[in-house]
Backbone:
């Protein structure tokens, strides 16, 4: 076996694109290049419908692992180039399969060839047969059987214009669209379980997700800030180039506590969060807001209370978790690596000065009258003026 490897990257939804497929391919390629080290002599190619990377064996596994963090990839495989010779192909197959055989046990296998260039003289079924039967003649007596439907081991052969690559592995990607192909948006990130998952789901829809955190350090300490830094860093690994805006929120909360009706507090805090997120989005030309809200999960997430926060902005609002239950959200959080950080105990600013009976069916005119009692615009302008902006790639 030579010490060169080729990684084959299969697209997810880009494969369904027509006219503008090149646009998506280019963005995915850019994202891959950004995620992989620049000094390892990797050669990038885009033969039709695929991205391929030629690189040395010593860096192949580490580079392949990085690909599992990049949205837009359906799957990827690390492969080895072979000559257009059935004996040579079968010999490599034997080399891979033989160590998997155990005395007294059967191993089901199949060969799957795919011809992206029709210049190769044999068809895919012919290649499967030629390579498969050669391997069987060597290993059939050691327990190897052919099973096309339920194979334990699939030998894949990709036949291109001037090359043949063989694979003994296929790893699932994150699927979806490449980050940046849809545009930039802003996620309200709280430090809880839900909002990081919401951000991640939007990244997989091609968005670069920036973050805003409403911080109440004087009352809650630095714990929330540290937690959100960690969470946004984890999500940024899936996308890169995101910003985190930290908004000092204590003055807003104190004003609402001191002047507005106790039962309305949580919804009023949240209306301020939405207004400030709206202003940040406009300043940075972001095209929507994302939250981790899920219908009915807590008092602030009833239909009435969601309407009461939605109406303060005309931005797109994305709530990718709206129809999910907590168990499903937790499963996602574990998968993306945010769960362990999210469950570190730390109160969120929404629970500061918590009313004993928060309103579940708020009426917008009632909230508006309550807001007349505070210097809403002044508070908003001051909070925005004191935003800390963090470039997550720099951390
Ligand atoms: P999470 O698990 O994401 O904290 P939650 O179930 O605790 O959500 P809420 O506290 O009502 O629900 O918050 C709903 C959403 O509001 C969050 O998912 C998040 O998008 C946003 N949010 C709440 N608190 C903050 C905060 N301090 N900073 C930024 N966004 C927040
Ligand atoms: Mg929360």
Residues:
């Amino acid at each position: 076996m030579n010490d060169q490897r080729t990684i084959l990257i299969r697209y997810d939804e880009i494969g369904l694109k027509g006219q503008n497929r090149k646009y998506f391919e280019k963005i995915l390629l850019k994202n891959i290049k950004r995620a992989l080290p620049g000094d390892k002599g990797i050669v990038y190619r885009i033969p039709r419908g695929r991205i391929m990377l030629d690189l040395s064996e010593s860096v192949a596994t580490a580079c392949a692992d990085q690909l599992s963090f990049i949205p837009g990839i359906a799957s990827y495989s690390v492969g080895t180039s072979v000559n257009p010779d059935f004996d040579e192909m079968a010999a490599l197959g034997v080399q891979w399969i033989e160590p998997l055989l155990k005395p007294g046990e059967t191993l089901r296998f199949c060969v799957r060839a795919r011809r992206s260039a029709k210049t190769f003289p044999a068809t895919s079924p012919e290649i499967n047969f030629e390579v498969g039967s050669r391997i069987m003649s060597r290993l059939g007596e050691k327990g190897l059987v052919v099973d096309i439907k339920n194979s334990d081991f699939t030998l894949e052969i990709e036949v291109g214009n001037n090359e043949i690559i063989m694979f003994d592995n296929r790893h699932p990607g994150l699927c979806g669209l490449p980050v940046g192909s849809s545009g930039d948006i802003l996620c309200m990130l709280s430090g809880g379980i839900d909002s990081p998952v919401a951000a991640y789901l939007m990244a997989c829809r091609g968005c670069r997700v920036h973050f805003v955190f409403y911080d109440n350090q004087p009352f809650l300490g630095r714990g929330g800030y540290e937690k959100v830094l960690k969470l946004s860093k984890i999500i940024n690994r899936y996308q890169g180039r995101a910003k985190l805006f930290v908004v000092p929120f204590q003055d807003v909360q104190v004003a609402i506590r001191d002047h507005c009706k106790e039962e309305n507090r949580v919804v009023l805090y949240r209306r301020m969060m939405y207004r400030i997120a709206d202003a940040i989005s406009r300043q940075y030309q972001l095209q929507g807001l994302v939250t981790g809200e899920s219908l009915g999960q807590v008092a602030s997430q009833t239909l009435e209370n969601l309407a009461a926060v939605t109406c303060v902005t005309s931005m797109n609002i994305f709530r990718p978790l709206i129809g999910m239950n907590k168990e499903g959200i937790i499963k996602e959080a574990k998968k993306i690596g945010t769960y362990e950080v999210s469950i570190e105990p730390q109160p969120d600013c929404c629970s500061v000065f918590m009313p004993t009976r928060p309103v579940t069916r708020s009426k917008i005119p009632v909230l508006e009258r309550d807001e007349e009692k505070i210097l809403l615009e002044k508070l908003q302008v001051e909070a925005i003026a004191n935003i800390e902006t963090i470039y997550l790639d720099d951390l």
